[in-house]
Amino acid sequence: MSSPETVLVTGGVGFVGSHAVEYYAEQGAEVTALDNLSRIDTLETADESRNTAAYNWNYISENYPQVELIEGDIRDQEHLEEVVEGHDAIVHTAGQVAVTASIQEPRTDFEVNALGTFNVLEAARKADSDPAVVLASTNKVYGDNVNEIPVREQKTRYQYDDPEYENGIPESLSIDDCEHTPYGTSKLSADLYVQDYADRDEVDAAAFRMSCIYGARQFGNEDQGWVAHFAISTLRDEPLTIFGDGKQVRDVLYVKDLIRAYDAFLSNPDGKPAVYNIGGGTENTTSLVEFLDMLEDQTGARTDVSFDDWREGDQKVYVSDISRARNELDWEPQVDFETGIRRFVDWYANR
Predict the structure, then answer these.
(1) Active-site annotation holder among 165, 183, 193, 197
(2) Contact 89/132 with Cβ under 8 angstroms?
(3) pLDDT for 43 beyond 50
(4) Which of 15, 96, 97 is nearest to 53 (CA)?
(5) Distance from chain centroid for Cα 196
(6) Which of 23, 37, 135, 151 is the most exposed, having the fewest neighbouring CB atoms within 10 Å of its CB?
(7) Which residues are in the NAD-dependent epimerase/dehydratase domain (predicted)?
């Protein structure tokens, strides 16, 4: 099967969304980017120099003038249905992205992530063009169950101490009987609606439960996007706060590899599972303190670091088991972490 020819990207000038826009524009598809340009308003520690949406709106306008940019909101069902019609694929990345913001404003978090995704699915169900949908979901759907897995502490990292999880967290890990944040709950609701619409054959759809995604055009901060936040703070010699002891581990995935996974589903959704854990897997993991060492090796720079208490919803270790994506989508990461960070540093220096 070939890639879709008419693609709508919600959150199209966000970090992940802008890369989906770029990917499909490069493929020659007809692309629409829908965004309400609100991201910087929802992140309390962001400043204007890290306004992802403004930067990416300009980037897409200049480099891909054929892309239609629409300012709009996924909570506006009527407008959304008008925009969706005529597309054969939707990459749904629009969302409230920060755990901290979800705790402060849980209603907004719910309306954007849960109701907004429901609106996208309903618009897709009603559209004559019958678009397939991928949702940017999150590993936070597993809540505190991740922290029930025993870990052992090593010099610079924690790692799972249970052979059942030597390949990482599978899609079958329970989502029940544990603490969740409002963010994890709203994204889980969206995720389950995607699976329901897919299972009832209302929409070809899949939820991708993402681990840490990083790459060019990401302006991270301590609320969200920690890889970019650490790299930019190091390059700008701005002090960093690590919540916890810095030994927490994540698998990391270069953003262009993520978009390839989305496309693998959208290009041939028939008979495919509706949920995937997606990340760099066991071969692309780092702890926070190990990443600071890598940055110093690559840039010669090291910024001041202080430590603070663990935050609500933090996980000591999260590594994705990506075997389902490998087997069902014939996909695997192509960009290793060291190469990806070199690309990020080069982009930031030359932006």
Answers:
(1) 183
(2) yes
(3) no
(4) 15
(5) 21
(6) 37
(7) 7-279
Count other C-beta atoms under 10 Å from residue 121's C-beta: 23
229-260 per-position pLDDT tens digit: 999 999 999 999 999 999 999 999 999 999 99
What is the distance between the alpha carbons of residues 56 and 14, in angstroms, rounded to a whole number? Answer: 7
Give mean pLDDT, residues 6-21: 97
Angle at Cα 245 formed by Cα 243 and Cα 251, nearest 5°? 80
**Beta pairing partners, 35:** 71
The question of whether 64 is a catalytic residue gets the answer no
How far CA 114 is from CA of 94, 106, 141, 147, in Å, comes to 11, 11, 13, 25
Residue with the two structure tokens 């407008």: 79
Q: How confident is the model at residue 51 (pLDDT cuts 50, 70, 90)?
A: confident
Domains, the chain, ordered by start: 6-350 (3.40.50.720)
Nearest to 208 by CA among 122, 328, 341: 328
Tell me the backbone φ, ψ of residue 306, rounded to 5 degrees: -120, 160
Dist CA 174 CA 314 (whole Å): 17
Quick one: which of 211, 213, 247 has its CA closest to 340? 213
What does the radius of gyration of the chain's CA atoms come to, in whole angstroms?
19
Q: Please state, in angstroms and rounded to a whole number, the distance separating the CA atoms of residues 133 and 262.
A: 9
Greater pLDDT, 16 or 40: 16
Residue type, 77: Q
92 touches 59 (CB < 8 A): no
How much is the mean pLDDT over the chain?
Answer: 94
Q: Find, among 156, 93, 154, 140, the residue nearest to 120 by Cα.
A: 93
Cα 247 to the center of its chain, rounded Å: 22
Query: How remote is the C-alpha of 71 from its chain's centroid?
Result: 21
Structural contact between residues 134 and 91, judged by C-beta atoms closer than 8 angstroms: yes
